[in-house]
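[audit] Reproducing an earlier prediction to check determinism. Same input, same settings, fresh worker. If the tokens differ from the archived copy the diff job will pick it up downstream; this log only records the rerun itself.
[audit] input (226 residues):
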Amino acid sequence: MMKRFALLIPIAALILAFFALGLHRQLTLEAFQANHASFDAWYIQRPLLVIGGYVGLFMLVTLFLPVGALMTLIGGALFGFWKGALIASFAAAGGATLAFSLSRFILRERVQRQFGERLAAVNAGIAIDGAFYLFSLRLAPVIPAFVINLVMGLTPMRTRTFYWVTQLGMASRILICAHAGTELAQVHNLSEVFSPGLIGALALLGVFPLLARQVLGRMHLAPGGP
């Protein structure tokens, strides 16, 4: 038990450092907009370092903060649409898989106590639909993403299956967010943030889960559906 919890020490240290250095105050659109030029300069000078830092930060902060959409917006603004979507896709799936693994190997008892009721429903869904159940949760989320990651860690699903299904299921929303990020990168101040392109991308992000839910429901495969 102690050996398992010892694995949490590096992650806990990183989280504490994140808050101690005030980096959480930089996770806003205003902060990114103010430092966009600096980010671009860093990226031109040290592209691999910036990409690695972005991926590491994405995986870390999404363990404990609901900022996946914001990080993807920033990725689209910083790296461009296709590159930003690709990098954010791997970062998001990697972060989800890290949470999944922590739940499975370290936090099992705590997650079981906290989400035991939901675990029964998830196991029932997996028994009926297999990996497609996870795909439908990612496509039309009815449970918060961090809960999905933790609860799935207690199921029999293989880690590699969780990873690729998660990456595939989140792809559509990541593409929409990355596109919104490219629109964000083109405005010079936040008073211009509500451009037609950005409004359209954010509107699509809002209605997409509802549309996906309707489609999955008609297929009789949506979570909680008939």
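[audit] rerun output stored. Observation attached for the diff report: The two ends are 41 Å apart (CA to CA).
[audit] end
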